[in-house]
Amino acid sequence: MTAVLDSPTTPVSSIGAPRLLAGVAEHGRVDHARHLLLHGAPVLRRRSWLVAATRDVNLLGRGGGAFPVTAKLAAMPSGRDVAVLLNGSEGEPASRKDRVLMTCAPHLVIDGALVVADALGTANVTIVVHDAAAHDSLVHAVAERTDATVVRVVRAADGGFVGGEIRAVVNGLATGRAVPGGRRVLPHVSGVDGLPTFGSNVETFAHLALLGRMGVAEYARTGSTAEPGTSLLTVLGDAPVRGVVEVPNGTPLSVLLPATTAPVLVGGYHGTWRRDVDGLTVDRAALRAAGSPLGAGVIARPHPGTCVVDEVVRVARWLAAESAGQCGPCFFGLPAIADDLAALAAGAGADRAASAHRRLALVRGRGACAHPDGSAAFVGSALDALADELAVHQHHGRCGRPASTVLPTPEEGTR
Amino acid sequence: MSTIDVDWTRCDAHGLCSRLLPERITLDEWGFPVVDGRELPDDLVRAARSAALACPALALRVGSHDAG
Asked: Looking at the domain that runs over A308-396, which CATH code has it been given?
């Protein structure tokens, strides 16, 4: 089923000149010699410079939360031991952009780690990665150069979807079990080794490397005024260009998904279904305001003639099974919601829809991590965006189309 | 300025909190507390602290919201 993404090499492309993925389309993995030709050595900057520059280019975290990097940097205490954590666990099942980045452009990620570590005055630098190829590429990259001996690359056990959240990654390093804690202790207060930790997604660090190297003006030469620079997206399903795509921020989603008539999933499995992408661009603040946060950058559109309802039911069941089982409303609520959805797909009426909506309200905000809320967003938006398809199912008990299989739902242990 | 916080990783749906503070805590269909998130008026703070102390799982906390 997900032939494109399950193949060993995810297609890689760009709209406009690639930055993070420079040289990848032509050469594959960018080794250290080629990296030096393309980007030069990392340009180290003072912390105050980084705080100002990340503010000026409005750099937002690329793991899904889109938190302003400048605020995260400014929140780090000075004058005491701190740690730097690069999250490359890529728990989002449909996303491939982080493993592509780490596999093909590992030196840019490492440069970013060195830039931040130097600015914060620490030698405590950890990259956590699950994917085997990405891990091997990073380990090889550290060995290819002499300036990265402080960088520790850790292969994390598969923590599933919820294990990818940065607080879960911190717990995984400390205890071997990547689940979020019950109290919301943020990494900048207590993270790796109990130290205040600057933690972010690996793509964020690659951008920090580019920003340090280019400076604000050059960095802002592409992208939009609101959000300069580029973004890595994973595009699945009915789209002319699939796989991992680097795009300038501000790119209209209609460029990626021309002539949209089918529903679109924006942001991944904690994202939202929409009827169209009219007027939407790759702009994290604008997408959030439009009710469709970009998340980890997944954009998916089922193929024409396939049943989206069945696919949503399958993913809803998968999301329910991905609950870490720590929090009751998530553990009991998500399976109940998936059952409601399955019943609707089989022709149940308005009472079952009401049940789904009531239970969605019961899981939102009632867990230790973003999983219940994100899953509720996925299902709740599907109920709205797929109203026409659900009406067909209600009348006929099904729609007669083959189920869409655009969204991967990996079995445990196969991720 | 007090509010009730639930540590969802600890809560085991014992339900005592809802009995001790029915004004602010009801139970959902699975027995987990649904907490009215508004600030507690002074006359309920005492009952809220009792509910927090009575929780067998130590999952409830009555605290000032901005320190949360």
From this structure: 1.20.1440.230
**Dist. CA A203–CA A220, nearest whole Å:** 17
Q: Model confidence at B64, in pLDDT bands (50, 70, 90)? A: low
User: Mean pLDDT in chain A?
Assistant: 91
Contact in structure between A386 and A367 (CB atoms under 8 Å)? no
Residue B59 domain boundaries:
2-67
Q: Across the interface, which of B9, B30, B31 has its CB nearest the CB of A182?
A: B9
For chain B, how many helices (H) and strands (E)? 2, 4
Residue A395 has pLDDT above 70, yes or no: yes
To test the contact with chain B by mutation, choose from A185, A186, A327, A359 the residue with the greatest count of B C-beta atoms within 10 A, namely A327
What is the C-alpha separation between A233 and A95, in angstroms, rounded?
Answer: 8
pLDDT class for A183, splitting at 50, 70, 90?
Answer: low
How many cross-chain Cβ pairs, A to B, lie less than 8 Å apart?
39
Q: Is B29 in CB contact (< 8 Å) with chain A?
A: yes
Of A329, A336, A359, the CB nearest to B8: A329
The residue assigned the tokens 């109940």 is A336
Q: How far apart are CA A273 and CA A263, in angstroms?
A: 7
Helix (H, G, I), strand (E, B) or coil at A99: helix
CATH number of the structural domain spanning residue B50: 3.30.70.20
Beta carbons of B68 and A326 less than 8 Å apart: no
Lowest model confidence (mean pLDDT) among A77-91, A129-143, A351-365: A77-91
Given 3-state DSSP classes, what are the helix, strand and coil percentages for chain A, each rounded to the nearest 5? 45, 15, 40
How many distinct structural domains can be found in chain B?
Answer: 1
Tokens of A387: 């109203």
Decide if B63 contacts B15 (C-beta within 8 A): no
Residue written as tokens 């909506």? A357
Rounded to whole angstroms, the Cα distance separating A313 from A409 reads 11
Structure tokens at A169: 């990654």
Does residue B66 belong to the interface with chain A, where contact is any CB pair within 8 Å?
no
Architecture of domain A3-219: 3-Layer(aba) Sandwich (3.40)
What is the domain partition of chain A in residue ranges?
3-219, 308-396
